[in-house]
UniProtKB/TrEMBL annotation:
Pfam families according to UniProt: Staph_reg_Sar_Rot
Name of this chain's protein: MarR family transcriptional regulator
Keyword terms, alphabetized: Cytoplasm, DNA-binding, Transcription, Transcription regulation
Localization terms from the record: Cytoplasm
Ranges for domain HTH marR-type: 15-145
SMART domains from the UniProt entry: HTH_MARR
One BP annotation, GO: response to stress
Length: 185
């Protein structure tokens, strides 16, 4: 006996998942950064550390972790590799030995000039104009903020577009003229 395939819930289709678009975008961005940073001899996480240090040389490890949303277990080996590469120096604070400051070396500072074109090259390859780039940044910041908030902002239009646990079949997936869950005619 064969079973009939059940219709797939439109909200569970791969292409309906925002997370999948974010995942694909992240992979594409990181692959592009890998190319752009190869000339500098740094990885993407190292580049992020350098960006913070170019703003605030001598930042503490905890400040770096906070700015980059990295745990110390991830950040410490990263900083150790950067120190071995001659890009940074880690120094314990004289006031409190638990506090470690990270300072750029001359080589780390010199990379700033060489990295100047990286953001422009990424933007050019991304094909978004300035307004689109700013809007995307705003939306991603809002998404991160909402996902990290104890009570995220709820937009009922999301339930209508993507379905909800109470009504998993979004309006966009319904056939025009077909009965809805509340209409049994």
């Amino acid at each position: 006996m064969t079973t009939q395939p059940t219709p797939t819930d439109p909200g569970l289709l791969l292409d309906a998942q925002l997370c999948f678009r974010l995942y694909r975008s992240e992979r594409a961005v990181l692959a592009t950064y890998r190319e752009l940073l190869a000339d500098l001899g740094v990885t993407y996480p190292q580049y992020l550390v350098l960006l913070v240090l170019w703003e605030t040389d001598g930042a503490t490890v905890s400040h770096l972790g906070s700015r980059l949303a990295l745990e110390s277990g991830t950040l410490s080996p990263l900083l150790r590799r950067m120190e071995t590469a001659g890009l940074v120096l880690r120094e314990r604070s004289g006031d409190d030995e638990r506090v470690v400051h990270v300072r750029l070396t001359d080589a780390g500072r010199a990379l700033q000039t060489r990295a100047h074109g990286v953001p422009h090259d990424l933007a050019r390859r991304g094909g978004l104009d300035t307004a689109e780039t700013l809007e995307l940044a705003r939306l991603l910041d809002r998404l991160c903020s909402n996902l990290g908030a104890p009570e995220p902002t709820v937009d009922t239009a999301i339930d209508e577009a993507f379905g909800s646990p109470q009504n998993p079949h979004p309006a966009s997936a319904r056939t025009p003229g077909a009965p809805t869950d509340g209409d049994r005619s």
